[in-house]
């Protein structure tokens, strides 16, 4: 098992309660105790967790999650202006995958929000953690909107629950539309562990994961892994993707759409 896959599994184990024991990790990971300890040491140095007696816990910052706190990464008001034309085309292509009357989930992001104008008239039921997406859908009389409970992170204008707390409504959807900070051979990545835990909850509830990323997201391969590429069903991007990057996506069994 590769180190990035072990890291993802460790973060998943931490999410429910904020703590995981060495014994639990040994049962989850195909790795020796020494390897697990090296993984935890590395992840602690990266600020992803804290090693404690008997195991590991989420870092103090992740546990606190005060209302209005900022997540790592580019604030929404800045990211919305970056590669805007490409994001608008991606959002339009993503909306075209929706069927009238179905239930979908849309994760917050500067690309996923571009779906909103193209959903009018489809009479969808939409679960979203993004206040920007809520605002975009409110004028659509036939669109029903659900939101989770949790803390509002103002810079991204999204609602996230504390680690280990499942605040999502009882909702299962055929499709999840989500963005990412980076995409690489390791998988789909975000900058902040709180965001990763929230997105994993969405991924686990969806039958189909549809990733919306402009081609610049392939230039970086750093971050906390949300899921492997093998968990993504469809990836929508722009014509700036290179042939090698396209081969990587298709090689993982992902349907690639160029908007």
Automatic annotation (TrEMBL):
<dbReference type="Pfam" id="PF08220">
    <property type="entry name" value="HTH_DeoR"/>
</dbReference>
<dbReference type="Pfam" id="PF00455">
    <property type="entry name" value="DeoRC"/>
</dbReference>
<protein>
    <submittedName>
        <fullName>DeoR family ulaG and ulaABCDEF operon transcriptional repressor</fullName>
    </submittedName>
</protein>
<dbReference type="InterPro" id="IPR036390">
    <property type="entry name" value="WH_DNA-bd_sf"/>
</dbReference>
<dbReference type="InterPro" id="IPR018356">
    <property type="entry name" value="Tscrpt_reg_HTH_DeoR_CS"/>
</dbReference>
<dbReference type="InterPro" id="IPR001034">
    <property type="entry name" value="DeoR_HTH"/>
</dbReference>
<dbReference type="InterPro" id="IPR037171">
    <property type="entry name" value="NagB/RpiA_transferase-like"/>
</dbReference>
<dbReference type="InterPro" id="IPR050313">
    <property type="entry name" value="Carb_Metab_HTH_regulators"/>
</dbReference>
<dbReference type="InterPro" id="IPR036388">
    <property type="entry name" value="WH-like_DNA-bd_sf"/>
</dbReference>
<keyword id="KW-0805">Transcription regulation</keyword>
<feature type="domain" description="HTH deoR-type">
    <location>
        <begin position="3"/>
        <end position="58"/>
    </location>
</feature>
<dbReference type="GO" id="GO:0003677">
    <property type="term" value="F:DNA binding"/>
</dbReference>
<keyword id="KW-0238">DNA-binding</keyword>
<dbReference type="InterPro" id="IPR014036">
    <property type="entry name" value="DeoR-like_C"/>
</dbReference>
<keyword id="KW-0804">Transcription</keyword>
<dbReference type="GO" id="GO:0003700">
    <property type="term" value="F:DNA-binding transcription factor activity"/>
</dbReference>
């Amino acid at each position: 098992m590769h180190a990035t896959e072990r890291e993802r599994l460790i973060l998943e184990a931490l999410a429910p309660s904020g703590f995981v024991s060495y014994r639990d990790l040994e049962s989850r990971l195909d790795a020796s105790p020494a390897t697990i300890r090296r993984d935890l040491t590395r992840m602690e140095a990266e600020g992803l967790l804290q090693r404690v007696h008997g195991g590991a816990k989420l870092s103090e910052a992740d546990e606190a999650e005060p209302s209005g706190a900022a997540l790592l990464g580019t604030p929404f008001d800045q990211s919305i202006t970056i590669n805007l034309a490409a994001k608008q085309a991606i959002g339009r292509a993503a909306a075209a995958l929706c069927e009238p009357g179905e239930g979908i989930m849309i994760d917050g992001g500067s690309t996923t929000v571009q779906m909103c104008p193209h959903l009018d008239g489809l009479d969808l039921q939409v679960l979203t953690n993004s206040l920007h997406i809520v605002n975009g859908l409110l004028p659509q009389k036939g669109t029903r909107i659900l939101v989770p409970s949790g803390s509002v992170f103002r810079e991204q204008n999204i609602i996230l629950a504390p680690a280990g707390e499942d605040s999502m409504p009882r909702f299962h959807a055929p499709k999840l539309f989500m963005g990412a900070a980076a995409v690489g051979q390791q998988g789909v990545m975000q900058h902040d562990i709180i965001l990763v835990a929230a997105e994993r909850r969405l991924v686990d509830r969806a039958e189909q994961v549809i990733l919306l990323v402009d081609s610049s997201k392939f230039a970086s391969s750093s971050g906390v892994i949300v899921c492997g590429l093998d968990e993504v069903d469809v990836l929508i991007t722009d014509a700036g993707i290179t042939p090698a990057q396209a081969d990587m996506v298709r090689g993982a069994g992902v349907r690639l759409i160029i908007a």
